[in-house]
Specification:
Blueprint (H helix, E strand, L loop, with lengths): L1 H9 L7 H22 L7 E3 L7 E5 L6 E7 L2 E6 L5 H14 L18 H11 L6 H18 L10 H13 L11 H18 L34 H14 L1 H13 L3 H5 L6 E2 L4 E4 L10 E4 L2 H13 L21 H15 L9 H11 L5 H8 L4 H8 L4 H16 L3
Antiparallel strand pairs: 1-2, 2-3, 3-4, 5-6, 6-7
Helix pairs in contact: 4-5, 8-9, 8-12, 9-11, 9-13
Length: about 425
Amino acid sequence: MVAFANRSRESGAGALSPRASGQADRAVHRIERNRTMARTKRSRRSYGAGEWGRNRVRVFPDPKTGLYQIEWRENGRRLTRSLKHRDWSRAKRQADEAAAGLSGRGLNGRKDAEPEPLTLGTLLDIYGEEVTPTKAETSQRSDRAATKMFLRFFGRDRRPETLSRRDWDRFIRARRAGRIGPSGRPVSDRTIECDLKFLIAVFNWAAKSRDEAGRLLLSSNPLKGLRTPTEKNPVRVVLLEEEYHALLRISLKVDWRFHVALVLAHETGHRIGAIRKLRWPDIDLEGGVVRWRAEHEKNGYEHCTPVTAEALDAFEEARRENPENGDAPVLPASTDASRCVGRSLVRYWWNRAEKLAGLEPQRGRGWHSLRRKFASDLMDQPLKVLCELGGWKTAKTVLQCYQRADEDRLRKALASRRNGALDPV
C-alpha cells in the first residue's frame, strides 16, 4: 500500500482519501482471513449406520483434533465417545459393528445382559396390576381366583409361550374331575369355558402390549385356535308366571326393597345389578321413563326405556318408604341411605323369598330368570323393540340365551299354521 501511494505521488496523482484507504485495508484483511480458513476448514465427512429410532450410529471427525468420534442414542440421550484414531475405513467398520450389536452387544465389545424371560407368574401379575383394576368388582374377584388357580396348576415359573394343546386338555380334565379350583369339586363345561377365556384374554393382551424396552410381552398367543368346552344344554331357567306371583305375594314379608326390586325386574326386564344402582335423577315419574346408565350395564349401553304402570307404582312405593331427595338411591342400603343396596343382600332376599313362597330349590332360578321371562313374554314383538326395552345390544344374545318357546306357544304356532292352510283361497 505504501509503494502504491508513492507511485501515485510520483505520477502526479493526488493522495487517497481516508475512505478509499479504509476499503483497501479491509480487502487485504479478507484475503488473509480466507487463506487462514482454507487451512483450518472443518471436515463435513460423516458416516451413519443402523436404523433411525432403533440402532442408529454415526462417526465423524472432531473439528479440533481430527480424531474420529462415534455417536449413538441411549434411553433418549445422545452419547459420544472418541475412537482415538484418524483412520476413516476403521471408523466406518467400527460404526457398522456398533450398530449391529447395539441391541445385544455394547460398544466395548462385551455382551449386554439379556432380559429375564417372561414367566406365567410375572405375566399374570402385570395383568392383575394394569387390567384387572379397570373391571367391575365381581370381575376383579373372578380374575384373582382364576389367577391363583392357573399358577397353582401350571406353576409361576412356567414360560407362557411353551403352553400347548396338551396343557390345555390336561387342565380341562383336571377341572372336570375337581382336582383343581377354589371349591375342589367338579364343575360344568360352562365354568371351564369362563376360566380358559380369561387365560386367552391375558395372552391376547400380552401379544399387543410392550415392556419398557419396546418389546412385545408375547410374540403371539400360544393358545390361539384351541376350542373351549361348551355346555350343550346349559341350565337357563325361565321363571314361570305362577312362581312370580307366589314370590310377589310374600315379597313385603321379606323387605319393601325386595318387593320394589322384584316388580322392577319383572316389568323392565333389566339385570338386578342395574336395578340396584338406580337413583332418583334417573327416574322420570311424570314421563314414565327410566334412564339406565352405561356404567351400571354389563354391556356399557346407556339407554332410556318407558315403564309400565306397575313399575311406576313400585317407584312411588319406594319414594314413600325412603323420601330422600337429590342423588339418593331408589333402593338404599340398610346402614347408609346414600349408598345402593348390596348384591349379597338381594341374593339373600331371593333365597328367603323362595322358602317363604314354598318353591322347591332349583339351580339357575334367580334374579336373572326374570330377565329370561321378560324376553320370552315379549317373543311376539319385533326383536328390535325387545332389544331396546331390555337393554340388549344384539338380537343374537336374545335368541340364544333368553327366549324360550314353551309347549303351549309351540302348539299355538302349529294350530295357526293348520288354520291358515284350511282357509279357502
